[in-house]
Automatic annotation (TrEMBL):
<dbReference type="InterPro" id="IPR036388">
    <property type="entry name" value="WH-like_DNA-bd_sf"/>
</dbReference>
<feature type="DNA-binding region" description="OmpR/PhoB-type">
    <location>
        <begin position="1"/>
        <end position="69"/>
    </location>
</feature>
<dbReference type="Pfam" id="PF00486">
    <property type="entry name" value="Trans_reg_C"/>
</dbReference>
<protein>
    <submittedName>
        <fullName>Putative regulatory protein</fullName>
    </submittedName>
</protein>
<keyword id="KW-0805">Transcription regulation</keyword>
<keyword id="KW-0238">DNA-binding</keyword>
<dbReference type="Pfam" id="PF03704">
    <property type="entry name" value="BTAD"/>
</dbReference>
<dbReference type="InterPro" id="IPR051677">
    <property type="entry name" value="AfsR-DnrI-RedD_regulator"/>
</dbReference>
<feature type="domain" description="OmpR/PhoB-type">
    <location>
        <begin position="1"/>
        <end position="69"/>
    </location>
</feature>
<dbReference type="InterPro" id="IPR041664">
    <property type="entry name" value="AAA_16"/>
</dbReference>
<dbReference type="GO" id="GO:0003677">
    <property type="term" value="F:DNA binding"/>
</dbReference>
<dbReference type="InterPro" id="IPR016032">
    <property type="entry name" value="Sig_transdc_resp-reg_C-effctor"/>
</dbReference>
<feature type="region of interest" description="Disordered">
    <location>
        <begin position="239"/>
        <end position="272"/>
    </location>
</feature>
<dbReference type="Pfam" id="PF13191">
    <property type="entry name" value="AAA_16"/>
</dbReference>
<keyword id="KW-0902">Two-component regulatory system</keyword>
<dbReference type="InterPro" id="IPR001867">
    <property type="entry name" value="OmpR/PhoB-type_DNA-bd"/>
</dbReference>
<dbReference type="InterPro" id="IPR011990">
    <property type="entry name" value="TPR-like_helical_dom_sf"/>
</dbReference>
Length: 1016
C-alpha cells in the first residue's frame, strides 16, 4: 500500500482505486474495512518518523488517502530532479556540472524498484518508467564524460549495459565512440553490426541515422579522438507515449520501438533512414502543424503492412519537435489479440500525458474522475462501468467519451497537442466511437490527429471503414495512401546502408522483389548477413534464393485470414506465374476453386492487383507474395498444378498465337509437372522451347531446355531406337551450345559430343560430319593439334566422297589452322583460302551451316586467313579480310560471329599499335559477349581490350583484366592462341613498368611454344 501511495506522492488516491490495485480480482468480503486496517498498520510503521504533534503521514482526504511526504523526501523524486537538471546542464554544454549531477542521481539507484510487486500493473509500469529514466541518465552521463575525455571509464561502464539493452541506440553510439577513442575501432564496428542485426531481426528497421553517422566517421577516421564539447541533448519538449507499447508484430516491424517506450518520453538519438516520402511528409506535417494555429486537423495514412506508415509518423514527430513552438506529441498504438481492454488506444494517450504534464493533467481530470475510470488503466472497466439498475449504458459511455474529449481539449488549449494514433484496424468499437466524437469537437481547437491503418484490413472491415469515413468526412481532413517506394527511393534506401556503388541490376532485383515495400527491402538485405555483400558479384543470386523469414511470417499471417477456397485459387495463381491471365486461370481451376468469388478478396487483401492496361490480367503485389505461396505447397500438389496449367496452355483458345514466349511457358509448366505427365508429351515441348530460344540467341535458355530434355529422355525405354536417336541428337546439340557459350575447350562440351558420336556408333549410323568437326575444334582449342589433324583427315575423306559442305569446310579450316600454328604459313594460307572459297560457294546455306559450326563459316575461314596474311607481310590483303569480317557481321549476324570479327580486328590493331581501335573493338566485343552469355568470347576479347587500357594509362585495370581473362581461358582448357595472348600481356607489363612480371610472362610463352610445338 505504501508503494501505491508513494508513486502518487502528493495526490489523493481514491479508495476504490486502492481496493482494486491491492486485491485486483479477489477482494476481501469487506474491502473497505480491510483497507482501513492496512492504513492503520502503515500509520503505526511510519509515524515513528514524524515529529511530535505532527499529523500522520498517511492522511485521509476524500475520496481516499494521500501520503504526506515532501517530494524531496522521496529518492525517486530526487533521482528524477537530478537527472533532469543534469540533462539541462548538458544541453547548455556544461559537461562538468552535468557529469556531477547525473553521478549524484545514479548514486541513489539501489536496484530496480518495486520488483516484489510484479503482480501489480501500475507498479510494474512505474518500475519500467524509472528503469528507462536510469538508462537515460546513464547515456547522458556517458555523453558528459566523453566530452571530458573519459572514454576508458565510459567503455567499461557501457559494455554491460549494451549487452542488457541491445536496442538502445544512443547508448550503443556512446560506447562505439568510447571504443574508437581508445583505438579499438574494430570492436566499435563489430558492435555496430551486432546492433544493426538485432534491430533488423527484432523490429525490421535499420540503425538510426546518428548511429550510422558514427560508424561512417569511424570508418573514415573522422570521429573525434579526444575531449569535445557535448552535443545538444534532445529538446525539453518530447513526445509523450504509452508506457508499455505492444511488441511489433510481423509485418508491422517496420516501425522502431516508439520513442521513449517504457516511460522515458525521449526522442530517438537521430532520425533513421527515410527515403521517397518527401511529399507525404510535407502533407502530414502541414496537417499536424495546424494545431499550432488553433485549427484542428485530421490526417489518415493508409497502406499495407511494412510500407512505412510508422516511419512517416516518426519523421513527422521529429519535424514537429524541430520547430520553434513545438506542440506536445502523443503516441498510441492499438494491439491485436485477446485480453486487450476497451479504450486501450485512449488509455495510452492519457497515461502519456499524465507522465509529461502531470500537474495540468491532474487539473484537467479533476472534474471527471469517475467518468474517466473506464479509460484510465488504473481504473478497472468492470468496476467503472457499473451502472445503477435501470441505468442507461449508452448514456454512461457517451459521458465517458465526452469527459476524455474535455480533458484533451483543455490540455490542448494550454499547449497545442498532436495525437499519433496507430493501427486503427485493431481498435475496439468503443475507441472508434470516442474518436468520432473527438473529431467533431476538435474544430478551431489546437488539436490535430494523425491516424494510421492498413488499407486491406480497412477495406474488408465494414465497421472500421464506416468509422473512418465519418472521421474523414469533414473539412480539414487529409487521406494519404502509401504505396511502394520508387526504384530511386529504394536505391537511396539501399545505398545509405551499403554505401555508394551498388550495381543497378541489384537495385532492380530489390525493387522488383519487394514491390518497393521498405520492410521487405530491409528483410531482403538480411539474407546477405552483411549488407556490404551487396557489392559482391553473387549478391543477386542470394537475394533471389529465398524469402526472408520475417516476410514469410508476415505474409502467412495475411494468408491465414483468407477463406480456404480463396487460398486455393491464390496457390493456383502462384503456380501460373507473376502475371495471371484470368481466362487461363478459369480454364485451369477445378470445381472447388471458385475463381470469380476468390479474386475479389485476394485483391482487397492487397495480394493481387489488376492491370489497368489489360483488364483480363492480374499480377502479384510483389514477387515475395507469389514465392511464399508456392513454398507453402506440398511438392506433389505443386507438380499437379503445374501439369494442369501446362495442359490448359497447350490447348489454346481460337485466335491465340503460339509464339516463343507461349512455347516457353508450356515447356516450363510441363517440366515442373513432369511427374504427372507422360514423358513423350513433355519432350516435344522442351525441344520447341529450345528451338525458339536459339532463334532468339538466348543460349543460356537453350542449354537449360536441352539439359532438361537429356534428363527426361533418360527415363524412356533404353532399347528403343527412336529413343537412342533422340538422345544422340540432344547430346550433339548440347555439346554445340556449350562450345558456343564456354568454348570448344570446355570439358563438358567435348564429353557431350563424344557421347553423341558413341550413340551414333551404337545405332550403326554413318559418321556425322558436324560431330567430327566439333571434336576437331575441341582438339584445336585445347592445343592437341595432332588429334585435330586426324579429325580433319576424316572430314576430308567424307567430303571427297559425299561433297558434304560441313566436311569440306571442316577439313580445310582445321588443317589450315594447324599449319598456321606450326609456322607453315604459305601452306596454311592455301588451305584457308580454300576454306574461304568453299564458304562463299555455300553462302546460301550460311544459316544452316552456322548452327553446325557455331559460326558462319565465311567468318571462321576469313579470321585466320586475315591473321596469316598479316604475318606473311601482306598487310593489304589482311586489311581487306578485316573489312570483310566487319561488314559480314555488322547487321543480322549471330553474336558469336560478331565477337569473332571484333576479336580479329582488335588483335591486328594491337599488332599494329593502334590502341584506339584495339580498345574500341575489344570493348564492343566484351559487352556483346556478356549480354549473350558467351563466356569464351568475353575472355578472348578482354585480352586486347585490357592491352589497350594499359596503353591508355589505365595500367592497373588493364593488366587485371588481361590476367583474369587468361585465368578464365585456362579454366576452360583453352590453350589455342595462348602464345599470342601471353605476348600481349608481357608487352603490356613491360610498358606498365614491371619488367620482372614481363620476363615471367615471356618465360611462360616460351614454355607453351615448346610444349605444343607452336611457331611464333
Amino acid at each position: 500500500m505504501l508503494a501505491l501511495l508513494l508513486i502518487r506522492l502528493g495526490r489523493v488516491v481514491p479508495t476504490e482505486v486502492l481496493v482494486e490495485e491491492l486485491w485486483r480480482d479477489a477482494p476481501p468480503r469487506r474491502p473497505v474495512g480491510a483497507l482501513q486496517s492496512h492504513v492503520s498498520h502503515l500509520r503505526r510503521a511510519l509515524d515513528v518518523a514524524k515529529g511530535p504533534g505532527e499529523p500522520s503521514l498517511v492522511r485521509h482526504r476524500a475520496p481516499g488517502y494521500v501520503l504526506g511526504l515532501a517530494p524531496e523526501q522521496s529518492d525517486a523524486h530526487r533521482f528524477e530532479q537530478l537527472v533532469a537538471e543534469g540533462r539541462r546542464l548538458l544541453g547548455r554544454r556544461d559537461a562538468v556540472a552535468a557529469r556531477d549531477r547525473i553521478a549524484e542521481a545514479l548514486a541513489l539507484w539501489q536496484g530496480s524498484p518495486y520488483t516484489e510487486f510484479s503482480a501489480h500493473p501500475v507498479l510494474l509500469d512505474e518500475r519500467g518508467r524509472l528503469e528507462q529514466l536510469r538508462l537515460t541518465a546513464v547515456e547522458s552521463g556517458a555523453e558528459a564524460r566523453l566530452a571530458l575525455g573519459g572514454a576508458e571509464e565510459v567503455a567499461a561502464e557501457l559494455a554491460q549495459e549494451a549487452r542488457r539493452h541491445p536496442a538502445r541506440e544512443r547508448l550503443i553510439g556512446h560506447l562505439m565512440t568510447a571504443l574508437s577513442q581508445l583505438g579499438r575501432q574494430a570492436e566499435a564496428l563489430e558492435l555496430y553490426e551486432r546492433t544493426r542485426s538485432h534491430l533488423v531481426a527484432e523490429f525490421g528497421v535499420d540503425a538510426a541515422a546518428e548511429l550510422q553517422r558514427i560508424r561512417t566517421a569511424i570508418l573514415r577516421q573522422e570521429l573525434d579522438d579526444g575531449p569535445a564539447a557535448a552535443p545538444a541533448v534532445p529538446p525539453a519538449v518530447r513526445p509523450a507515449v504509452a508506457l508499455s507499447p505492444p511488441a511489433p508484430t510481423p509485418g508491422e516491424a517496420e516501425r522502431p520501438a516508439p520513442p521513449g517506450a517504457g516511460g522515458e518520453p525521449a526522442e530517438p538519438a537521430g532520425p533513421s533512414l527515410f527515403a521517397g516520402r518527401a511529399r507525404e511528409l510535407r502533407l502530414v506535417t502541414r496537417a499536424a502543424a495546424a494545431a499550432r494555429a488553433g485549427h484542428g486537423h485530421v490526417a489518415c495514412v493508409l497502406g499495407p503492412a511494412g510500407v512505412g506508415k510508422t516511419r512517416l509518423l516518426t519523421e513527422l514527430a521529429t519535424s514537429l519537435h524541430a520547430s520553434g513552438d513545438a506542440p506536445d506529441v502523443v503516441w498510441s498504438h492499438c494491439f491485436p489479440g485477446e485480453g486487450v481492454p476497451p479504450y486501450w488506444l485512449w488509455a495510452q494517450v492519457l497515461r502519456g500525458l499524465s507522465a509529461t504534464r502531470p500537474d495540468a493533467f491532474r487539473a484537467a481530470c479533476a472534474p471527471f474522475e469517475a467518468l474517466l475510470a473506464p479509460v484510465m488503466p488504473r481504473h478497472p472497466a468492470d468496476a467503472a462501468e457499473r451502472v445503477a439498475p435501470g441505468g442507461d449504458w449508452g448514456h454512461a459511455r457517451f459521458l465517458t467519451h465526452d469527459a476524455v474529449c474535455e480533458v484533451l481539449l483543455e490540455l490542448a488549449a494550454a499547449r497545442p497537442l498532436v495525437l499519433l494514433l496507430e493501427d486503427l484496424h485493431w481498435a475496439d468499437a468503443a475507441s472508434l466511437d470516442l474518436l468520432r466524437l473527438l473529431v467533431t469537437r476538435r474544430h478551431d481547437r489546437p488539436l490535430s490527429i494523425v491516424l494510421t491503418t492498413r488499407q486491406p484490413e480497412m477495406e474488408s472491415d465494414t465497421s472500421l471503414r464506416r468509422a473512418l469515413s465519418e472521421v474523414l468526412r469533414g473539412p480539414r481532413t487529409e487521406t494519404l495512401r502509401l504505396g511502394g517506394l520508387s526504384r530511386q527511393a529504394v536505391a537511396s534506401l539501399v545505398e545509405a546502408q551499403a554505401g555508394p556503388g551498388v550495381r543497378a541490376d541489384v537495385i532492380d532485383v530489390l525493387h522488383e522483389r519487394s514491390g518497393g515495400n521498405p520492410y521487405f527491402v530491409t528483410q531482403l538485405l538480411t539474407l546477405l548477413g552483411d549488407v556490404r555483400r551487396l557489392h559482391e558479384p553473387g549478391a543477386i543470386e542470394v537475394l533471389l534464393a529465398s524469402v526472408p523469414a520475417g516476410v514469410r511470417d508476415a505474409l502467412r499471417q495475411r494468408f491465414t485470414a483468407l477463406p480456404e477456397p480463396v487460398l486455393r485459387v491464390l496457390h493456383l495463381c502462384a503456380v501460373i506465374g507473376t502475371e495471371v491471365d484470368t481466362h487461363l486461370l478459369a480454364r485451369t481451376a477445378g470445381p472447388d476453386e471458385p475463381v470469380s468469388a476468390a479474386l475479389e478478396p485476394a485483391i482487397a487483401a492487397g495480394l493481387l492487383a489488376e492491370d489497368p492496361h489489360h483488364p483480363d490480367r492480374l499480377h502479384f503485389a510483389h514477387a515475395l507474395v507469389r514465392e511464399t505461396l508456392t513454398d507453402e505447397l506440398d511438392r506433389q500438389v505443386r507438380h499437379r498444378l503445374h501439369a494442369r496449367v501446362a495442359e490448359a496452355l497447350a490447348t489454346r483458345r481460337p485466335g491465340d498465337e503460339a509464339g516463343g514466349a507461349e512455347a516457353e511457358r508450356v515447356a516450363h509448366h510441363s517440366w515442373h509437372g513432369r511427374s504427372e505427365l507422360p514423358a513423350a508429351r513433355v519432350l516435344p515441348r522442351l525441344l520447341r522451347a529450345a528451338e525458339d530460344a536459339e532463334h532468339q540467341l538466348a543460349y543460356e535458355q537453350v542449354e537449360i531446355w536441352l539439359r532438361r530434355a537429356v534428363h527426361l529422355v533418360g527415363t524412356l525405354p533404353p532399347d528403343d531406337r527412336e529413343t537412342l536417336r533422340l538422345e544422340q541428337r540432344l547430346h550433339i546439340q548440347l555439346g554445340q551450345v556449350l562450345a558456343t557459350t564456354r568454348g570448344y575447350g570446355a570439358a563438358e562440351a567435348e564429353a557431350a559430343l563424344h557421347r553423341g558420336r558413341a550413340l551414333g556408333t551404337a545405332l550403326a549410323a554413318p559418321e556425322d560430319p558436324s560431330v567430327l568437326w566439333a571434336l576437331c575444334a575441341a582438339q584445336l582449342v585445347t592445343g592437341r593439334y595432332d588429334g585435330s589433324l586426324r579429325y580433319s583427315g576424316l572430314l576430308r575423306e567424307i567430303g571427297g566422297r559425299t561433297g558434304d559442305p560441313v566436311a569440306l569446310l571442316g577439313a580445310a579450316y582445321g588443317a589450315g589452322i594447324v599449319l598456321h600454328v606450326r609456322g607453315r604459313l604459305p601452306e596454311a594460307l592455301a588451305k584457308l583460302e580454300e576454306g574461304v572459297a568453299t564458304a562463299d560457294r555455300f553462302a546460301h546455306q550460311a544459316l544452316t551451316l552456322a548452327r553446325t559450326f557455331q559460326h558462319d563459316p565465311r567468318v571462321s575461314c576469313r579470321s585466320y586467313n586475315a591473321f596469316t596474311h598479316w604475318l606473311i607481310g601482306d598487310r593489304t590483303a589482311a586489311a581487306e579480310r578485316r573489312r570483310e569480317l566487319l561488314l559480314l557481321t555488322e547487321f543480322d549476324s549471330r553474336p558469336s560471329d560478331r565477337a569473332f570479327a571484333l576479336y580479329v580486328d582488335a588483335v591486328i590493331a594491337a599488332w599494329e599499335g593502334d590502341v584506339d581501335t584495339a580498345g574500341r573493338s575489344g570493348a564492343e566485343g566484351t559487352g556483346l559477349a556478356e549480354n549473350h552469355g558467351l563466356l569464351y568470347w568475353k575472355a578472348m576479347l578482354s585480352l586486347p581490350e585490357g592491352w589497350a587500357r594499359t596503353h591508355s594509362g589505365q595500367a592497373a585495370d588493364g593488366l587485371a583484366q588481361m590476367r583474369s581473362a587468361l585465368a578464365e581461358l585456362g579454366r576452360s582448357r583453352t590453350h589455342f592462341r595462348l602464345p599470342l595472348h601471353l605476348g600481349l600481356l608481357g608487352q603490356a607489363e613491360y610498358l606498365a613498368g614491371d619488367p620482372e612480371a614481363a620476363a615471367r610472362t615471356f618465360g611462360r610463352l616460351a614454355a607453351a611454344v615448346e610444349l605444343r610445338r607452336e611457331h611464333v
